[in-house]
């Protein structure tokens, strides 16, 4: 692969990574309603989800039946709706709290994996864009470099987001507006779930 091919791939990839979506919402939710540790665990889970997608795309499995994609989207919609409900039910933290309610980093990691695998942005990128940006003659070394770049950049961005959201100033502000944050987060999750649900249902019925 040429330098231009790498730059084109990473440019499109990074634009998608930093744009708002389910992954970002989950990392913020885990960081604010939980802790920095949980936020970073979710970020690592998201990066693991990307590793799964990269493997699937490299093996050419991504060209599978459209109905399978539709089922994945419907599962993603259910996950997003359940997160919205859980966010509204969560007890908002205040500055007087000594810590977050007990939550497992492993559960946060698993949530990150599940969210990314069913993330419509990841689905679209790896099923519709990724294959067009990887030349058919790309070597195994090229593919390995691409995989490392995608996974590392995803982990770095969401890890930084988790760290930023849990810094003292930001954490204080978010805690003081915890109820508004929870409602906004839940609303975004419901909207995203609606979009994914519509897309998946349409695909199944056509």
UniProtKB/TrEMBL annotation:
<dbReference type="Pfam" id="PF01810">
    <property type="entry name" value="LysE"/>
</dbReference>
<keyword id="KW-1133">Transmembrane helix</keyword>
<feature type="transmembrane region" description="Helical">
    <location>
        <begin position="40"/>
        <end position="62"/>
    </location>
</feature>
<keyword id="KW-0472">Membrane</keyword>
<feature type="transmembrane region" description="Helical">
    <location>
        <begin position="180"/>
        <end position="200"/>
    </location>
</feature>
<dbReference type="GO" id="GO:0005886">
    <property type="term" value="C:plasma membrane"/>
</dbReference>
<keyword id="KW-0812">Transmembrane</keyword>
<feature type="transmembrane region" description="Helical">
    <location>
        <begin position="144"/>
        <end position="164"/>
    </location>
</feature>
<feature type="transmembrane region" description="Helical">
    <location>
        <begin position="68"/>
        <end position="88"/>
    </location>
</feature>
<dbReference type="GO" id="GO:0015171">
    <property type="term" value="F:amino acid transmembrane transporter activity"/>
</dbReference>
<dbReference type="InterPro" id="IPR001123">
    <property type="entry name" value="LeuE-type"/>
</dbReference>
<feature type="transmembrane region" description="Helical">
    <location>
        <begin position="6"/>
        <end position="28"/>
    </location>
</feature>
<feature type="transmembrane region" description="Helical">
    <location>
        <begin position="109"/>
        <end position="132"/>
    </location>
</feature>
<protein>
    <submittedName>
        <fullName>Lysine exporter protein LysE/YggA</fullName>
    </submittedName>
</protein>
<keyword id="KW-1003">Cell membrane</keyword>
């Amino acid at each position: 692969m040429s330098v231009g091919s790498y730059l084109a791939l990473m440019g499109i990839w990074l634009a998608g990574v930093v744009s708002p979506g389910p992954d970002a919402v989950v990392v913020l939710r885990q960081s604010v309603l939980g802790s920095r540790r949980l936020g970073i665990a979710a970020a690592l889970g998201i990066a693991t989800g990307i590793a799964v997608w990269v493997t699937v795309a490299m093996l050419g499995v991504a060209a599978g039946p459209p109905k399978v994609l539709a089922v994945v989207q419907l599962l993603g919609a259910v996950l997003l709706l359940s997160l919205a409900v859980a966010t509204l039910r969560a007890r908002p933290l205040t500055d007087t709290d000594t810590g977050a309610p007990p939550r497992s980093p492993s559960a946060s990691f698993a949530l990150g994996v599940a969210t990314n695998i069913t993330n419509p942005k990841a689905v679209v990128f790896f099923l519709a864009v990724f294959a067009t940006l990887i030349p058919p003659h790309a070597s195994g070394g090229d593919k390995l470099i691409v995989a490392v770049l995608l996974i590392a950049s995803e982990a770095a961005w969401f890890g930084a987001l988790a760290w930023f959201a849990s810094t003292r100033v930001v954490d204080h502000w978010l805690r003081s507006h915890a109820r508004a944050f929870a409602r906004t987060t839940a609303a975004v999750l419901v909207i995203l779930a609606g979009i994914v649900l519509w897309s998946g249902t349409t695909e199944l019925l056509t």
